Amino acid sequence: MSRLQSQATPWLLLLPAAVLLATFTHIPAVTTFINSFYTTPRGARPARFVGVEQYQSMLADPVFLAALKNNAIYALGTVPLAIGLSLLMAIIVNSSIRGRALLRMSFFLPTVLPMIAVANIWLFFYTPGYGLFDQILANFGFSSTNWLGSPNTALPSLMLLGIWKEAGFFMIFYLAALQQISPSLAEAAALEGASRWYYFRRIVFPLLMPTTLFVLVNALINSFRLIDHVIVMTRGGPDNASTLLLYYIYNTAFRFWDTAYASALTMVLLAALAAFSFIQFGILDRKVHYK
Q: What does the pLDDT look like over 136-183, one tens digit per residue?
């Protein structure tokens, strides 16, 4: 009996987490996949099986193609810059400088603030004429700019907010990784006459690769799942110039009430994230040294 209890105890401990994971992740994902092959039930009309018709409709959907393009640009623009900025901030607050605790708090503060609150603050920054950015640029002779109302600047404005919001969160992981590096490595490099840049490039950065891989995966996922600032600041406009894929899924499901098409869009999003994760963990992980 004791042997049976010892074998059952780990599974019983995992049971609550497994139930929550299945209830809120796996079962909804399977249900969404099944619904993507049916039409949306409306009133007394039940759902009808249509096969891959929903997926074929995407190829002729200009809003979906625009959202996919915008999300790719958003990810390519925010992920590298957020990671680079977070690494720079971690290096700064890891050094022996005065006010280090205050700098750490300042860098991490945007992460604590809710995205909706941050988006409302940045709405003031982007206000044409009297917003913070226009006030600063006016001192250099620049005219007023409608940052969120122009197709050329709406998406970059959201990207700038995303970088500012995410960098402080990733900084914590880099700071923890930097503090795990033995000071003896820096001393040995200094005795060998290595410059600080050479020491960082050949010793510190390779040791940070496990953290970089982890941060890269999370940053990429965040670039596809964060839409609060889109809802508050642009609502996808102007002319879908700032529409991201998850925002389009949200509109399709809860505004236009086309849950079947939204299910197909969701599966495309999940497939894209799975492919990116496989590339990152399956290929890049082989080039990461954990010891």
A: 888 888 888 899 988 999 999 999 999 999 999 999 999 999 988 888
Listing DSSP states for 184-205 in one string gives HHHHHHHHTT--HHHHIIIIIH
Q: Look at residue 13 and tell me if it is in a domain.
A: yes
What the block records as the tokens of 10 is 């780990």
Residue 20 shares a structural domain with residue 93 = no
The answer on 221 and 182 residing in a single domain is yes
Cβ contact 233:160 at 8 Å: no
Digit-coded pLDDT (tens) for 269-281: 988 888 887 877 7
Q: How many domains does the chain have?
A: 2
In a domain, 163, yes or no: yes
Give the whole-angstrom CA distance, residue 109 versus residue 121.
Answer: 14
> Could you give the C-alpha distances from 65 to 72, 135, 166, in angstroms and in order?
11, 36, 26
Name the pTM for this structure: 0.87
**Distance between CA 288 and CA 207 in Å, rounded?**
9
- Residue 208 forms part of a structural domain: yes
Range of the domain at 225: 54-113+157-287
State pLDDT tens for residues 15-74. 889 899 899 888 988 999 999 998 888 877 888 888 889 999 998 899 999 999 999 999
Higher pLDDT, 59 or 6: 59
Residue 152, domain member (yes or no):
no
Which residues fall within 8 angstroms of residue 88, CB to CB, at 6 or more apart?
none
Task: Note every long-range contact of 248-256, with CB atoms under 8 Å and residues 24 or more positions apart, other chains counting.
Answer: 248/63, 248/64, 248/67
